[in-house]
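Q: What does the predicted 3D structure of Short chain dehydrogenase look like?
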Amino acid sequence: MKRILLTGASGGIGRAIAVRLANDGHRLILVARDARRLEEQLSLLPGSHEILTQDLAAPDAGIRLVEALGERVPDVLINCAGVQELQRFDNSDWLAIERLMRINLLAPMAIIHALVPRLHPGSQIINIGSVLGEIGYPGYVAYGASKGGLKRFSEALGRELRDTGIRVSWLAPRATDTALNSPEAVELNRALGNRVDAPSVVADAVAGLIQSPRTSKVLGFPESLFTRINALMPRLVDGAIGKQLDTIKAHCKEKS
């Protein structure tokens, strides 16, 4: 049994992770900004767990969250909180972009920065990314930048902590059926024939990483293959995505 700190615990993927890990017998500290939703979720989980309310968009969220832990030190940190929007970059609101970058990238970095000195050998950090952090994709420019930054951060941090016994893992789901997806994103996935996973698929992958840690994992086929092609022969991916561009732009949300 491990003590696990899970951010974004009230979202679709976060809820699925919480259910899976609670059923596996772990003790959870669930983090989200909506206390009511956290309380509702807590009542449905087997075992004894705790909640912490924290808005991760706040500049000092990482420090405040770690301070709120008190003497409790997690064995596993799972950074799952995230936001996204399907929209052309030039139509995006800049303040919304800054908030996205803070929640998706800066908040995980801030939490880890404050928490690492307290972690023990054998501890694990799991950062939930996205296949869009592996492949730059139109309509998700800022989101891809945030998840791509999280990928490189995870990679570099894992190498830096190699001699401490602390493991860092990067998990990149493909499209997943959650409320994070706007109606436009749902329609785009349908128009392009993209496969969409249930949140439980991601939860199972997280449970697998806790049992058998590894540096990185991309979920789904052909997405996992596509990420390798993008790394080796990006021009091929340029061409493939170029054929989708009109469809993507047609589904982008207009600036309100």
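A (community wiki): The structure tokens above were generated from the sequence. Strands lie at 3-7, 27-32, 50-53, 76-79, 124-128, 167-172, 216-218. The chain has one domain: 3-251.
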